Amino acid sequence: MKLAFYAPMKPPDHPTPSGDRRMGRLLWKALENAGFDLELVSRLRSLETSGDAAIQAGNERKGRVEAERLVTAWRADPAQMPEGWFTYHVYHKSPDWIGPYVCEKLNIPYFIAEASHAPKQANGPWKPGYDAAARAITQAACVFHMTNLDGACLKSLIADDSQLVFLPPFLDTEAFLTEANENVRVEDLVVAAGGQRDKKNLLAVAMMRSGDKFMSYEQIGLMLPLLKTDDWQLLIVGDGDRREDIEKLLSPFVDRIVYLGQQPSSILPAVYRFADVYVWPAHGEAYGMAFLEAQVCGLPVVAGKIRGVPDVVKDGQTGLLTEEGDFGAFAEAVDFLLASLSVRGKMSEAAHQFVRSERGLEKAAKTLKHYIGKVLK
């Protein structure tokens, strides 16, 4: 069965890495594993972050041109026409201006993964995008929501519960672990970067860029002085245009911060296994793919109880989640895990099993195959 694939926020072959691109690629792989033949039908980006009405109107016009191009091409050659259309990530800042129109004209079913509906934007600067996203969601034969929070918000648009399917964030665990370099000596990397041996190692893995990522680094800076444990160091894997600002932000702890820079995916599993606790406030993040990476490597997590984080970290079982902005509680959770080897051991095993069994590519592929297949049969 052939599916058209479209990601209005960022196409899966975009050169700039991000969590959104990564999930797009994972969905592509899961759909292929489910037996679908995919075609990336457009690379038009509809992301508009300023709320500019003129830009949104321009994006709508560009989307209509793309839609007409596809309709014309597939009507001229019906053998190339897909049986359905799959769009990844639709919300008021990146609506799908193409898929709903094409599906209506060609009478093919429309599917969405990771749709968000925020009623507070109904009369705000993104109203055109909000209205377009809402129309797309209501038209979809099936909406795969990736967090329970999104699912609750989408119920106001989707009357039939069978059209709303929980597809939690997932990881290609086999590829991630199989590609790991088992010969890397992380301790040597840490020492070469200025770190010390025989310290308890906290770890954060995140790009150093503006927005939510920078805010999380800022919050780490507010949490660190509240730690009661003394023999710790924080390993940071990541780089970006705000690195200098982040280093300045964390300069009060210069002797305890170890900047490992951006590391290839083959090195990351060893880094996760070397660390004792993964720490990340997750300010403003939808869920956080690094949490799944850390856990599949057996690394317990301390994170903010924000948005979709509870869907990727099982509070009290694979990690500890604290209320947003409560840096005292965050520090207490870190102290507790650093002091409790037995608890870390139990969480390590639970974290590994959770991701392998509940958040793997195979389970996601089965979910997609079942629900899309029911519509297309």
UniProtKB/TrEMBL annotation:
Q: Read off the Pfam families from this record.
A: Glyco_trans_1_4
Where are the residues of the annotated region Disordered?
1-20
InterPro entries in UniProt: Glycosyltransferase_grp1
Name of this chain's protein = Glycosyltransferase family 4 protein
